[in-house]
Amino acid sequence: MSLKTVLAPVLGNDADTAILNAARAIAEPHGAHIFVAHIHREPRDVLIPQVGMGMSASMIEGLIEQAENAANEAQAASLSAFDRWREANDLPVVQQPAATKGVTVSFETLVGEPATIVARRSRMVDVICVVAPADRESNDAMAVAEAAMLQSGKATLVVPHDVTMPKISGVAVGWNASKEAASAVAHAMPLLETADKVLVMSGIDDDLTEEHLGTFVDSLLWHGVKAQAKSFDASSGSISGRLQAEAREADTQLLVLGAYSHSRLRESIFGGVTDDILTATRIPVLMAH
Question: Mean pLDDT in the chain?
Fold first, then answer.
């Protein structure tokens, strides 16, 4: 298996640098191409809720001009961050598939509703890089992250705003035997196969026993993955907190998890590991649904 294409959707804000650095970290061991895509809404679409609310034509045109200026400024900010990052890392720009060695990059601007744009574009790459929204009300950042996880069919790398993603030598896997966890592991296999160590962590209960965990670890060993098991009591404490703590203690740089093993609605109402990771992650996490 190989990891050859990475999508880095950027919005022209402070999170751009974290996304770009994460994309490079995951692309570098595989010589992958990074598609940096600046995304912004169509300025006139932003004003749809305002039309018909007693606003004059001049007021609407003024708001359209403001929205266009904001979109242009965000696009310029993303392009500037891209240029600085590309030059600092000496990364060549490539627009078409080429037989080159090492990481290559390209920049594009996509206009439309962010979640729709990301869902469509991400289906044509191997991994999508997003930041964990610092604020639950950060609508576009949350929409991009959820679209990548729920609608792409691919792996999504979620990184904290303030954590520089290091070189990946160790990987932790949170295994609950769900189809989502199996999907995450399948997408992460290029990273697992090249890691110096892989720690497989499971909360043990009546449905997931030590024997089940051992069988899964054996399945990774068949692939040449340097895997070992770590179990804990699933009935005590926060699962997301425990997984992150164990991953850091084992000196791993990446946590692999299935996303939304329960329905999105159930997690939004009752809480869940995925929402906890999105809003309070302290370690880069690779997720798939």
Answer: 87
Residue 112's φ and ψ, nearest 5 degrees, are: 155, -170
> What phi and psi values does residue 228 have, to the nearest 5 degrees?
-140, 155
Rounded to 5 degrees, what angle do the CA atoms 19, 289, 130 make? 10
**Dihedral sign from CA coordinates of 183, 184, 187, 189:** negative
DSSP codes, 40-53: E--HHHHTGGGTTS
pLDDT band for position 260 (cuts 50, 70, 90): confident
Q: Determine how many CB atoms are found less than 10 A away from the CB of residue 68.
A: 14
State in Å, rounded, how far the first CA of the chain is from the last one.
19
- Cα 32 to Cα 104, 120, 179, 192, 200: the distances in Å are 7, 20, 27, 16, 26
Relative orientation angle of helices 139-151 and 114-122, to the nearest 10 degrees: 30
How far is 258 from 271, CA to CA, in rounded Å? 15
Question: 227 or 236: whose pLDDT is higher?
Answer: 227
> Residue 227: is its pLDDT beyond 90?
yes
Residue of higher predicted confidence among 66 and 199: 199
Look at residue 46 in the predicted model and tell me its pLDDT.
Answer: 62
Q: What is the pTM of this model?
A: 0.88
The number of CA neighbours under 13 Å toward the Cβ of 143 is: 16
